[in-house]
Amino acid sequence: MDNDKKTRDELVFHLMRGHAHMSYEDAVADFPEEHMNDVFTNGDYTFWHLLEHMRRTQADIINFSINPDYKDLKWPDDYWPKKDAKATKEDWNKTIKDFLEDRERLKKIIEDQTVDIYKVFPWGDGQTLAREAAVITDHNAYHLGEFAIMRQVMNAWPKNHK
Question: Could you give the count of Cα atoms lying within 13 Å of 140 in the half-sphere of its Cβ?
Answer without folding.
Answer: 29
